Amino acid sequence: MALKQYQMYINGEWVDADDGKKSTVYNPATEEAISQVPSASSRQVKEAIDDAYTAQKSWKRVPAATRGAYLVKIAALIRQNSDRLAHILSEEEGKIVPLATVEVNFSADYIDYMAAQGRTYEGEVIQSDNANENIALLKQPIGVAAGILPWNFPFFLIARKFAPALVTGNTIVIKPSSDTPNIALEFAKLADQVALPKGVLNFVTGPGSVVGSELSQNEKIGIISLTGSVDSGKRVMADASGHIAKVSLELGGKAPAIVCKDADIDLAVQAIIDSRIDNNGELCNNCERVYVQEDVADEFTKKLVAKMAATSIGDPIKHEDIGMGPLINQAAVEKVDGMVQRAVQAGAKVACGGKRPEGKGWFYPATVVTNVKQSDELVQEEIFGPVLPVLTFKTLNQAIDMANDSKLGLTSSIFTENMDAAASAANELEDGETYINRYNFEAMQGFHAGWKESGLGGADGKHGLEEYVNTHVIYLQRHPEKADQ
Fold first, then answer.
1. Separation in Å, CA 137 to CA 33, 134, 474, 476
2. 274 with 323: CB under 8 angstroms?
3. Strand pairing partners for 474?
4. Which residues are designated catalytic?
5. Which of 57, 60, 53, 23 minimizes the C-alpha distance to 38?
6. How many CB atoms lie within 10 A of CB 303?
7. Tens digit of each residue's pLDDT (9 = 90 or more) over 156-205
């Protein structure tokens, strides 16, 4: 089968790499090559930035409602192509097809949501200390945005970055992950159909050492929005400091789930499993560690293990009724398995899973690990795979202390019928989001933001939109005596 051949999208044109260099993309379920994409040169990245910089001068003058109308057209094209896009996404990333379909359709809804903000985001008029003066605070675009994407939600995260950027008058250069560039370039094909002005939306493929570095260091970039690892975020911050670019970072997560003795155990088990095996365990929102009160630990763990053990895995293209697909690559499997094996060597017990299946594909089973300690690597470091360490606690305060004992602080959850306990935990947990009696997944109208090393800034809702604007204060001194002249 011939490999699909893709081109980059720069200034409204389809281009190959300067030197013809390409990288190969693999299907993680079969380990087979499926496509080739260009590896951009530093010159091409600079060219994309320059084109976006030039285009932004005109784009910012387009009425926000008109900018939003372009987004609505893109959202409509996404819906028209949703089945095809979901298949490409599943083949490239290993996401099960039902979840891939949700991602595609949710992205269209998200773009529509942000398009509507073109008529609603606003500034302020405040009182002046001086007579005959108005003070206006206007929200104006920053300029050129850089969107640096991960591989785990490679379609939705385009929407999350480009839609608020464009509707507020910025232009953008997007770098997809080298593991999942196909779906990004398919997105570019749809965007090309709506006749956006050249340079407003650009997709440049290639390694982070070339594309990511130039996007982070180029002085014409006004804001860098990265979703990725903590280490990647630190590198971007260091690079951006050279020209004081704004950074918006969504980084790692180590989400704790607290299960109290009065919780609905069946609900807690299902919600925790849903937020662990979602996207094959490769999601920063995922529950990464469980704290269950001693009184119900046996019942909870028994039910958790039974359901985790029943989670089926396979090639998502061939089997749409499975619970999980493969991890993204061989390195991911080795990382996850290494963490589990080191935990076992330190005294932990594998209650289910914990062993990579034989055969092709980068699969890892749903795994529960017990008899772990708070200080263990499995409890402290992000796993990013379908593995759940389970610990116990006596009091809620103890559980909150253990939950907060982390350098990361993206999401958390608590399961209890006591709303006083829920409210206390929600006020004390050191995370950007806390979910009460439900699985971990955010709303587009909320605000997705991490604390500690989980990030800076945030996304979604009106507050996420404001990541892409500067505040311009205008002092207008009036002279009433001249008004009648």
1. 52, 10, 6, 11
2. no
3. 136
4. 250
5. 23
6. 16
7. 999 999 999 999 999 999 999 999 999 999 999 999 999 999 999 999 99
